[in-house]
Amino acid sequence: MKKISRILLQAVLMAVLIAPAFAAERSGNLYWTPPNVTVGGQKIDELLNFIFALTLAAFVLTQVVYVIYLIRYRRRPGHKAHYSHGNNTLEIWWTAIPTAIFLGLAIWSNHVWFELTNTKPPADAVTVDIVSYQYGWDFRYAGADGKLGTGDVKKISVDNKFGVDPEDEAGKDDFTATEFVIPVGKPVHVLLRSRDVIHSFYVPEFRLYQDAVPGRTIKWIWFETTQTGEFQLACSQLCGIGHYNMKAPIRIVSPEDYQKWYDGKSAAAAAAQTVAKK
Fold first, then answer.
1. Of 240, 244, 130, residue with least CA distance to 195
2. Which of 31, 181, 222, 246 would be 235's cystine partner, CB 3.0–4.6 Å?
3. Is 236 inside any structural domain?
């Protein structure tokens, strides 16, 4: 009896200690994808929803045929089994139809991917330099001149985490942030790099995933958001012991709120530059 009591006590203590380690319970949209908030993501969702619907239809059709055959050709007294070698016409059809479907999906998906990755960002896009590191994200915006200083992965160092060319006048008024703030309804162009190992830019609500590779600048990422809100940028590439906590807040705000935030950051950067010159 004492042994059972001791085991129960240990189990209760273990439950109490382990409980805080469990992740927060997910609420809302539990059985579907997260809400999409980008224009490009709508095209991806159209493809996903078609695949889901097609899969459901194929599952229902095959299960209905399966049940019909189970009932119709069940074992019964007085009915002998009949051996069928097959039907060449049916085999051609059930080979040709899936092949055509897979080819169609391949063409469709490649068209969407090409459109998202090979279309140049508009000239008025907000350009943000994003550098990943173990274990966090840094963001750099153009200053009052509206021009983002040139960044080079070869120039990245402890003192120059964005690799900005010190001779580039355009980069001297740039400012940095620890959150990704963007205006709704305006194109945003991302320059993605890594300071150490492979990380990944992953925002489910944007339908975006792209590895940040050391020694490279990824320039194809651009998107346009459709609604305001707060989201989270996460690294989904196992990058080390602190990977679980490598995230950054994303705020999609109105153009007016973005301009206020930008003006404040830009003014602070200009003031700091003036002090540095003195």
1. 130
2. 246
3. yes
| Number of domains into which the chain is organized | 1
Spatial separation of the C-alpha atoms in residues 92 and 96, rounded to whole Å: 6
Residue 195, domain member (yes or no): yes
User: What number of H helices and E strands is found in the chain?
Assistant: 4, 10
Q: Is residue 226 part of a domain?
A: yes
Is the distance from CB of 177 to CB of 202 less than 8 angstroms? Answer: no
Residue-number span of the structural domain to which 254 is assigned: 126-277
CATH at residue 231: 2.60.40.420
151 belongs to a structural domain? yes
- What tens-digit pLDDT sequence spans the chain (278 residues)? 555 556 555 555 555 444 444 444 555 566 788 899 999 999 999 999 999 999 999 999 999 999 998 998 888 888 887 777 878 888 999 899 999 999 999 999 999 999 888 888 998 999 999 999 999 999 999 988 888 888 888 888 888 888 888 887 777 888 999 999 999 999 999 999 999 999 999 999 999 999 999 989 999 999 999 999 999 999 999 999 999 999 999 999 999 999 999 999 888 877 877 665 65
**CA–CA distance, 115 with 201 (Å, rounded to integer):** 19
As a whole number of angstroms, the distance between CA 104 and CA 99 comes to: 9
| Both tokens assigned to 167 | 């001779």
